[in-house]
TrEMBL record:
Pfam families: Glyoxalase_3. This is VOC family protein. Residues 5-172 form the Glyoxalase-like domain. InterPro entries: Glyas_Bleomycin-R_OHBP_Dase, Glyoxalase-like_dom. It comes from the Bacteria.
Length: 202
């Protein structure tokens, strides 16, 4: 299984809050995304190049509640408390060439886009967000359609109390990309981005 960085996930209490925060941080405009009916969320998007993007994700107050927990831990008290302090980079997703469907690998859709994604039971983040979720696109990804805003990922920094475990997981995925794994008391996720106005760390 050969994996690469597909997208970064920034979460916020509301989509408007997350979008405004990120646009102020990066000095560029995000693009409208859409709704995720399976999980009751919606998003806005930003190109990080022809094959990579960033999404701002929030609970969609106009959508009916999902049948189970929302993805990326959005329903957890810990995540809700974290987002009270403001939008945050919470996770990253690695693209793979195939994923077998199953209870924890549902087939999902947003508009014309279709994909399979690993969503653990309970919607928890793997290794508190520093280990990637895996995605297999059944259609071309949104990255191919997003306008180039001149933003690129320079480095993805992954701090964890179990760096060897994370390195082994990435090695098992045959992951290729610019990530730095280091030891930290708790999970830490930072993205260093090159923008038209200079370098920004989320």
């Amino acid at each position: 299984m050969s994996a690469r960085l597909d997208h970064l996930v920034v979460a916020a209490r509301t989509l408007a809050e997350g979008r405004a925060w990120l646009e102020a941080q990066l000095g560029v405009s995000l693009q409208p995304g859409g709704e995720h009916p399976d999980y009751g969320t919606h998003n806005a998007l930003l190109s990080l190049g022809p094959d990579t993007y960033l999404e701002v994700l929030a609970v969609n107050p106009a959508a009916p509640p999902p049948a189970g927990p929302r993805w990326f831990g959005l329903d957890s008290a810990e995540m809700q408390e974290r987002l009270e302090a403001g939008p945050a980079l919470i996770h990253w997703v690695a693209g793979v060439e195939s994923l077998s469907p199953g209870p924890e690998v549902p087939e999902l859709s947003r508009g014309s886009f279709r994909w399979r994604l690993t969503v653990p039971a309970g919607g928890v983040l793997p290794m508190y967000g520093v280990a990637p979720s895996l995605i297999h696109w059944l259609t071309p990804s949104p990255a191919a359609q997003l306008p180039d805003a001149g933003v690129r990922l320079s480095r993805l920094l992954l701090g964890t109390a179990h760096p060897d475990r994370l390195r082994a997981r990435l090695s098992g995925l045959e992951f290729s990309g610019t990530v730095e794994v280091y030891e930290a008391p708790r999970a830490e996720l930072r993205a260093v981005l090159e923008t038209p106005g200079g370098q920004v760390t989320l």
